[in-house]
Amino acid sequence: MLIMKKNQLFPACMAYLLWCSLPVMAQKQTAALKQTAISDLQSQYDHYKQTALQIWEYAEVGYQEYKSAALLAQTLRSSGFSVDTGVAGIPTAFVATYGSGKPVIGILAEYDALPGLSQQAVPEKKPREGASAGHACGHHLFGTASVAAGIELKKLIEAGKLKGTVKVYGCPAEEGGSGKVYMVRAGLFNDVDAVLHWHPGDRNGVSLGRSMANISAKFRFHGLSAHAAAAPEKGRSALDGVEAMNHMVNMLREHIPSSTRIHYVITSGGKAPNVVPDFAEVYYYVRNRDRDIVRDVFERVVNAAKGAALGTGTTMEYEITGGVYDMLPNRTLALAMHKNLQQVGGVPYTPGEKAFGEKIQATFAYTPPPISKAGTVDTLQAERPGDGGGSTDVADVSWTVPTMGLSAATWVPGTPAHSWQAVAAGGTDIGAKGMMVAAKTIALTGIDLFTDPALIQKARAEFLQAKGPGFQYKALLGDRPPALNYRK
Q1: Which residue numbers delimit the Peptidase M20 dimerisation domain (predicted)?
Q2: Which of 26, 323, 385, 400 has a CA between 20 and 30 Å from the CA of residue 451?
């Protein structure tokens, strides 16, 4: 039995009480850091809003985002980050770094627009003059919020409140260009402990839903030109090859897993009806949550193209322009992010914003959720109905390092992505307010990761178990260089 003298008992008790109080003290310190981050980010609202609106005006498509990438890189550089540009063989990709040592926390930033979706910031369909593209997926907000969160974490590291390294990844061409896949392939995430991201949407929430794996490719048919009336027998129509391929693929739909999605657009079909087209091109996407199914179905699409060329007397070649994995969610990080999103809250509308939103909702061909939905935070769910319908190159990052993201209400409730309504809201304070919800939530989750080593360890253990033993990453787009001209 241990016997203590009276003069030993008091110091021992004090030491025990101090040890017990350490977790409480740490929690209070973390809470204070989070409140500082929220307040500081809110004070920068106008600055970050203007940055986002400038990128909204640029509306540059995949791998052409020279001005957008330069603006974000310079914002980070002027805030004290070292910035490496042109990484992974991509002129518009960058990695901005501040701090040293572990942990290393990565934040993803996107900034590419979509072709054919030019729109003014008004609640009626009205394209911008002189512009053909638009931020119908809100990546101008995505990139800016991520940069804002990274800068906020940098300030706390600089002040000695946090220890470690923060990296902001400038990620181009998410829309079909698979920019992050090349960044993963180049090993840019190999030293990172956790990655945070977000995406614009019509609600605020964290979901453990999975995205779809995807392979995209352009099929190019070559034939022989001839006068379509005077000498049609001398011609071989490349457009016939495209149409024959499309017909066979449409019949193929009956004999593939029903969860598979196949989309295509004819990007070139000839110039005049009286000229047999000697060139035609069709652009395809093949998606499924199971990347092995994607590989199999894509090969069958390729075979349809080969058969179409044989049957029409044309030749065909194809180029895989993109390929992404299905998302690997991380529940450990999701729980932390959801708690922080609850603290930040949703997006309240002013009377003017509510009127704008009601006009937007009047253009829908369905009944949307109430406007007030933007001001709430969804419960954390394993999966929401409809999740997994899209694809993202964030998924490839998620198979490389523990990764988690959120959705923030930058659009009027009920707004679909890739719509003029999304572009319109993204050019207003509705979009900017949602952007700041994301910036604050990412910054708060970053604080958790910097101050709680156990959180990173638990996320890592879950990540390794989910990947399974023997997993080796192999990009779906193979070894090809970045498809820098896929939008041209």
Answers
A1: 215-307
A2: 400
User: In the prediction, which pLDDT does 9 show?
Assistant: 55
Among 260, 264, 259, 271, CA closest to 246: 264
Q: In the chain, what is the straight-line distance between the N-terminal and C-terminal CA atoms, in Å?
A: 82
φ, ψ at 149 (rounded to 5°): -65, -40
Domain borders along the chain are 30-211+326-467, 213-324
Q: What is the pLDDT of residue 6?
A: 52
- Separation between Cα atoms, residue 323 and residue 332, nearest integer Å: 27
**pLDDT value for 4:** 47
At 335-371, the pLDDT tens digits run 999 999 999 999 999 999 999 999 999 999 999 999 9
Q: Which residue carries 């659009």 as its tokens?
A: 411
Task: Estimate the crossing angle of helix 429-451 against helix 351-361, to 10 degrees.
Answer: 110
3-state SS class at 151: helix
CA distance 45 to 135: 20
Q: Which of 170, 155, 205, 191 is nearest to 447 (CA)?
A: 155
Q: How many CB atoms lie within 10 A of CB 277?
A: 26
- According to the model, what pLDDT value does residue 27 have? 83
Cα separation, 294 vs 394, whole angstroms: 17
Q: What is the pLDDT of residues 424-450, one digit of tens each?
A: 999 999 999 999 999 999 999 999 999
Q: Which region, left, alpha or beta, applies to residue 295 given φ > 0 means left and ψ of -120 to 50 means alpha?
A: alpha
**What region, left, alpha or beta, does residue 128 occupy, with left being phi > 0 and alpha being psi -120 to 50 degrees?**
beta
The token pair at 458 is: 């638990």
Class level of CATH domain 213-324:
alpha beta
Summarised one tens digit per residue, pLDDT across range 173-199 is 999 999 999 999 999 999 999 999 999
The CATH homologous superfamily for domain 30-211+326-467 is Zn peptidases (3.40.630.10)
